[in-house]
Amino acid sequence: MKIFVDTAKLDEIKEACSWGIVDGVTTNPSLIKRAVDEVKGRGKEIDMETYIQEICKTAGKDRPVSLEVISLTMKEMVEEAELLYSKFNPAAQNVVIKIPINTCTDESEGTDYDGLKTIEKLSQKSIPINVTLIMTPEQALLAAKAGASYASPFAGRIDDYIRRGLGVEFAKGDYFDFALIKKMGEQRLDEHLKNLGDEAAGALYLGKETKESISFGKDNGIESGVDLVKSIMKIYRNYDIKTEVIAASIRNARQIRQMAEAGAHIATIPFSVIRGMLQHTKTMEGIKNFSADVVPEYRELFQS
To answer: How would DSSP label each residue in 98-159?
Structure first.
């Protein structure tokens, strides 16, 4: 699995790249604004355009950098994508344009096709596209069909959405134990069925409590952000779809492991979470023993 670092801080990009494990960079306008403000806060004047150019150069030619449009209509998104690509891609040949899968902001309507139209038009111009804000396998399929280079399911946000629906309190970095939630749902269904006796199958199937028990802890059948990625990967494999899946909105190291197990092509990960991937108390304990076990005779081998 490839690893992208999800940050706009130049020092974090440089450091993570120096570890030899980073394959790309994702950003958004808010991350870039905070990073620029931080640089200015240290007394260095820099404009946003110059800063973005530095991000692309720091990442280097072989590491894609996702930059985001800001408008919601096809015409404007295409214009903005072309501007971003022409302005920042020449330096390092690594710019990818982020386009939202659905630009609708009115829940009563629910769907807007400008995202798909934009993806199709940009793909015809050979501009690589990272389709963002994917929350369902259906959206991921449409993104790929429209010509996306990358599809970014927001796994952490799906976990948050399900937990809030259940009334579960959590901090942003908390792991979502979806296996436990699944067991709880199964137990609720079992208890419900036991209490129904000989009720007819049709009434049982259509019953409100039955449906609530079956859908407990799920978003239209999706059990978690990891489950979302699993479903997308299965669909893509079924049809040999070349679009790469970027597991996004990652919250913790355990989630990254499960994304790798699910077969995600890429995970885009905050710098702090990448650091957390290295940590384990027994490793630190082992290093202490490792150092203590160096006998003087062996140490002499390294002295000239």
So the answer is: EEES-----TTT---SHHHHHHHHHHHTT--EEEEEE-SHHHHHHHHHHT-SEEEEBHHHHH
**For residue 134, what pLDDT is reported?**
98
Give the Cα separation of 150 and 268 in Å (integer).
12
303 domain residue, yes or no: no
Which of 150-154, 176-180, 296-300 has the least mean pLDDT? Answer: 296-300
Cα–Cα distance measured from residue 67 to residue 122, given in angstroms and rounded to the nearest whole number = 14
User: Which among 98, 117, 121, 230 is annotated as catalytic?
Assistant: 98
How many Cα atoms sit within 13 Å of 174 on the Cβ side? 11
Whether residue 206 sits in one domain with residue 126: no
Domain of residue 127, residue span: 2-173+224-291
How many whole angstroms separate alpha carbon 181 and alpha carbon 172?
18
Point out the least confidently predicted range of 29-33, 189-193, 214-218.
189-193
pLDDT of residue 105: 87
Q: Is 98 an annotated catalytic residue? A: yes
